[in-house]
Amino acid sequence: MIQDIAPRRLRNEFMNAAPRPGDLVLDMSVEGVLLPQDSLRFPTVEEWRNLECGGTLFYAFRIERQGEEDGPEEERFFLALHEAGERPPAPEGWRRTAPSALRRECPGPLAYAAATGWHLFQWYDSTRRCGRCGEALLPSETERAMCCPRCRAVHYPRIAPCVIVAVTCGERLLLTRYARPGAKNLVLVAGFVEAGETAEQAVHREVMEETGLKVRNLRYFGSQPWGFSGTLALGYVAELDGPDDIRLDTAELAEAVWVERAHIPPCPDSASLTMEMITRFSQGRL
């Protein structure tokens, strides 16, 4: 999955650090993350400043190298935040690429860094003023937070928990396709955890709402940070409880089908928790 970058490790502890010339910059906008035209890497602080892209650098995280002889022991990443509504163009020789595209273009630490950086960019970009009093926010010097100098409110990064459910019936797996435009891949039932419910209750509710099916014998599979949508995905395996007739919620899904283990199509990549669970079921390992 996207977070599996061993022997490297992402360390996201907050640091009140100043950028150094060799640190890396995640320069993001709604147009994508800044990369060279001819390679897959992020600009260094020195390169970024020479490009005169503008913006303010915020420390994001670092990636440690463990057990690798070549390269520095760690790489530090800084997020470039531009003025609200600004869409900085890519300088000559550079391009902007959707961070989600990197999960297939270059799986590994770079894709994971882009996903985590996108999560932070979305939060910083939308957390410029206090939601309580409207005052302009200032970054905390002691933790990853934005602070209001007027009413003293503290705003932390938002992480939305969601559930992903592999509903099984013997040798069959329930696969769905979203109703939104451009959705092509078959995926698992998924949805956000609502206020006042447990993750397990969300599993039962989401499966019932989207397909009209009841489930039992829930088994926790694992979790995944998914920075592209600012979520923490919690994976569950569940058995069908009752009839297998599907009542499709057409507002959410375009399709929901039972697929025999041997007929499950190959997954386009192994970056997501959904694809990992589908692949494991097809291999008889779920």
Structure, briefly:
The chain has 286 residues and is an alpha+beta fold. The chain contains five helices and 15 strands.
Overall shape: globular
Q: What share of residues is helical? A: 10-25%
Enumerate the spans where pLDDT stays under 50 for 5 or more consecutive residues.
Answer: none
How would you state the average pLDDT, rounded? Answer: 95
Order of helices and strands: EEEHEEEHHEEEEEEHEEEH
Question: Care to count the β-strands?
Answer: 15
Strand line-up of the largest beta sheet: 1-4-5-2-3-6
Distance between the termini: 15 Å
Q: Radius of gyration in whole Å, from Cα?
A: 21 Å
| Count of runs of 4 or more consecutive helical residues | 5
Biggest sheet architecture: 6 strands, mixed
Observed structural traits:
5 helices, 6-stranded mixed sheet, 15 strands, 286 residues, alpha+beta
Describe this structure in words.
- It is a single chain.
- The protein is of the alpha+beta class.
- It has helices spanning 45-51, 102-105, 109-126, 199-211, 273-282, and strands at residues 8-11, 24-29, 32-36, 56-65, 74-81, 94-97, 138-139, 146-147, 154-155, 160-169, 172-178, 189-192, 215-226, 231-240, 253-260.
- The strands form 3 sheets. It has a 6-stranded mixed β-sheet with strand order 1-4-5-2-3-6, covered by helices on one side. Strands 10, 11, 12, 13, 14 and 15 form a 6-stranded mixed β-sheet that branches. A 3-stranded antiparallel β-sheet has the order 7-8-9, with no helix packed on it.
